[in-house]
Amino acid sequence: MSERAYRVALIPGDGIGKEVVPAARSVIDAVGRRFQFSCEWAGFDWSCELHARTGSMTGGRSIEELAEQDAIFLGAIGYPGVPDHVSLWGLLIPIRRRFAQYVNLRPVRLLPGVRTPLADRGPDDIDFLIVRENNEGEYSEIGGRLYKGTPAELAVQQSVFTRVGVDRVVRYAFELARTREAKHLTSATKSNGIIHTMPFWDERFQAMAAEYPDVRTDQFHIDILSAHLVQHPDWFDVIVASNLFGDILSDLGPAIAGSIGLAPGANLNPERAHPSMFEPVHGSAPDIAGQGIANPIAQILTGAMMLDHLGETTAAAAVVTAVERVLAAGATRTGDLGGTATTAEMTASVISALE
Ligand code: NAD
Ligand code: IPM
Ligand code: MN
Predict the structure, then answer these.
(1) Which bound ligand lies closest to the C-alpha atom of 24?
(2) Active-site residue, from 14, 247, 308, 336
(3) Which of 191, 215, 260, 282 is the most exposed place for a label (fewest CB within 10 A)?
């Protein structure tokens, strides 16, 4: 009998989500047996496939059904056949907003045994956390199109930066930086070119910095920050960024750390008033979907972040250690890491490294 049980909504979604989610689930179930807890998985087939059949990403059901869960474990949403803005605004983005998951935490770490494309860099050089604003900013429904299909047609998209929205994510980043050895926080800005929202972002960052004198701060415009991430990844500890900048940095980060197939992520409601959602950084990878060759490690490490959030910190650490062992040993590697292992083989290696 399990001592502790967690209700977890399971949304594999599309493409490789349907392959890596079951893989990661089997790892979580295995670690649960070892540490005496269990996840009561509630499956949701919400996906582009369902949209094709019903015209709705949820088959007409409400995302309110997720409210009673302790956490949401999601693979990826989006697949050719349904326009991306329809699928993502029909499911992923509404979940992030409805449940005030305003922090998108995306750790980037070069793990021992993994090859970085950067010359002369090792695990000590690449270890930082991206804190991405996840509810507002450049991702906004405000705007519209006029005179469609005529030479005069136009599109307007309104960014939205609120004091509440900026302050809460920046505060989260300062608190997080405080827990790190380096205690260093970098703000991603673009206040030279974006005349209203980004100077506002900088002002709020500076105001908050005054409350955290123990945290060293700096800021870079997003263009040179991207270059620094490649040339000086060791300069970074915690990076706080708006929704769009954080999105871009969180694909760049895993690229220098070896593969997007290793990159976990968490959509957090820090107040725990609502369930948080755990999904890797990568998408549904239609180019490799259905072949059983996707790297499940991003989803598995995402599972570890979920366990950590649920309070199963020892089990979470055990999963991370098992992944580290498999990668360091190097015998099992999926295609993105230069090997030939399948999703199932990689998953089996992690499970046996747990034991
Ligand atoms: P993607 O992350 O799906 O794929 C980018 C590249 O990385 C592809 O070559 C893919 O094969 C590879 N890749 C990704 N994950 C991998 C893994 N686990 N193992 C091995 N290789 C992996 O990004 P994309 O191609 O821009 O997007 C595809 C679809 O996914 C689109 O519909 C997009 O909107 C959606 N998407 C969804 C999410 C999400 O649900 N969180 C995130 C990103 C993209
Ligand atoms: C991500 C994805 C999503 C985002 C897309 C699919 C809407 O790229 O989770 O990084 O931009 O947030
Ligand atoms: Mn992205």
Answers:
(1) 1
(2) 247
(3) 191
Q: How far apart are CA 112 and CA 114, in angstroms?
A: 6
DSSP state of 307: H
Task: Please report the pLDDT score of residue 206 as a whole number.
Answer: 98
**pTM summary value:** 0.98
103-109 and 266-268: which strand pairing?
antiparallel
| Helix axes 222-231 and 243-256, enclosed angle (nearest 10) | 10
Q: 59 alpha carbon to ligand 3 midpoint, in Å?
A: 25
The class level of CATH for 1-102+261-355 reads alpha beta
Q: What tokens appear for 239 in the block? A: 């990076």
As given in the structure block, the two tokens for residue 168 are 């809460």
pLDDT above 80 for 289: yes
CB 295 within 8 A of CB 114: no
Q: What CATH topology corresponds to 116-257?
A: Isopropylmalate Dehydrogenase (3.40.718)
Q: How confident is the model at residue 355 (pLDDT cuts 50, 70, 90)?
A: confident
147 annotated active-site = yes
Catalytic: 18? no
Tokens standing for 237? 């500890």
Which atom of ligand 1 is nearest to 286's Cα? 28
Domain-wise residue ranges, the chain:
1-102+261-355, 116-257
Can you tell me the distance from the alpha carbon of 239 to that of 111, in angstroms, rounded to the nearest whole number?
19
Expressed in angstroms and rounded, the spacing between residue 261 Cα and the centre of ligand 1 is 9
* C-alpha of residue 80 to centroid of ligand 1, in Å: 12
Ligand 3 mean position, distance from CA 72 (Å): 18
Tens digits of residue pLDDT in 106-153: 999 999 999 999 999 999 999 999 999 999 999 999 999 999 999 999
> DSSP states of 103-127 as a string?
EEEEEEE--TTPPPSSTT--TTT-E
The answer to whether 223 is a known catalytic residue is yes
